[in-house]
Structure prediction request, 164 residues.
Amino acid sequence: WLEAAELGVEVDASDAGFGAVCGNEWIWGRWGEREKGMSINAREALALLIAAATFGARWAGRRFILAIKCDNSTTVRALMIGTCRAPLILAMLRELALIQVRCRFGMQIQHRPGAQNQLADALSREKWHEFVQEAHGRGMEPAESPSVMVIPPWQRHTHTHQIT
Prediction:
């Protein structure tokens, strides 16, 4: 992976929603009530998980370093060390690892101050005028639906079976 080309992905979450930019594609969405009740750290991790699910198949089998740019230092640290004390974020880290395995891509995470994460930041906050100004001339298009289905950890039902 060290010899591979770098592909940058910007990810951001806000109280309103999330945004992510990969190449000339972008995604955004609004949070539901459950997500609005999460910490900003959990929302940042969820935004990254959604980005990986959306763009992951495009990255499959290609040799590059996926450089995730995120402005939340707590989420960046959790991703760098691969663990976290918050159970929900830890569950999202496991989901992200599964997507990496299924889609066969590697990843590096970088902290990027919000001022340098302008496209994703504008999407997450629904600042459409700013997004259009920043994206002008890049030929950017909205991405298609996720290539990998993400079932959030809080929506899974665990069934226990007794063997008699």
